Amino acid sequence: MRRSYVAVRGPDAVEYLNRMLSNDVPESGSADALLLTPKARVIALLLVWRRGEDDVLLLTEPELGEVVRAQLTRMRFAAKCDIELEQHTSAIVLGEHEGIPNRDFGVVATEVLDTELDAALPDDELERLRIEAATPRVGREIDDRVLPAEAGLDTRAISFDKGCYPGQEPVARQHYRGKVNRRLRVLDVDGVPAPESPVVYAGKDVGRVTSAVPGLALAYVRVEVPDDASLEVEGAPKPETPVVHDGKEVGRVTSAVPGLALAYVRVEVPEDAALEIDGRRARLH
């Protein structure tokens, strides 16, 4: 399992993180938390591990370690703590084990650092478990379009009893006064739909796919869609589907897989043209 690791150490480490994260640093063990912008957009999902009284390790997505370190360093001001990247390896073991409790997979699981374990699960099995558990990932389910509550993060990574932190005001306002229009849901599907594939209910576009493995997908779907609804997930266009530019047919699809197609297109169509295939946006590759 690929990760980045950010260590926060020093006499003010826990107090500082409690002012910056959406959840309090636990007395022991681990907790899920978010690092947010002031407008409550997610910078990083964090697994917060209390290694010692003044020693906390933050585990996050592999591409976000430096982002987290830089953001925490920028906001540190007079807090007495060191913030540094560390190098480790992670493996996930199902069941109770010595290590860091991990809640990403819908079953009891432990994240073990810096050791080779025969019992560790391969990445493809972990991805299926993650999707089954509706656990979001930055770059898949989480981007600047998404609020934490839409991804279900309000129930696992946010404390509504703690002190102030960046993004708290819009998070609390949404929780106590508002509602979300869509939520992250698990779909049974045929095949492996591509990310951003439209989800259709009763002829209307009601959502979009974010992640998928064979037979299973995560998607943002409007909250009014019933749990037992029969949905369509639009996949690859069929051969001979027209390619349209500025309302005119300019070509035809010859082959396609979800997210990618081959087509004959008229030479006068610009390389940066906005195209449509079967009512969906497309661009030249």
Brief characterization of the structure:
With 285 residues, the protein is mostly beta strands.
Write the layout of secondary structure elements.
Elements (H helix, E strand, L loop, with lengths): L3 E6 L3 H8 L9 E7 L5 E11 L2 E6 L4 H10 L7 E5 L3 E5 L5 E3 L6 E5 L9 H10 L35 H10 L4 E7 L9 E4 L2 E10 L2 E7 L9 E2 L8 E4 L2 E10 L2 E6 L9 E3 L2 E3 L3
Antiparallel strand pairs: 1-4, 1-5, 2-3, 3-4, 6-8, 7-8, 9-12, 10-11, 10-13, 11-12, 14-15, 14-17, 15-16, 17-18
Tag the structure with descriptive keywords.
285 residues; mainly beta; Gyrase A, domain 2; 3 domains; 5-stranded antiparallel β-sheet
Given the structure, what is the number of helices? 4
> What shape does the CA trace take?
elongated
* Secondary-structure-derived class: mainly beta
| Biggest sheet record | 5 strands, antiparallel
The CATH architecture of the largest domain is 2-Layer Sandwich
How many individual β-strands?
18
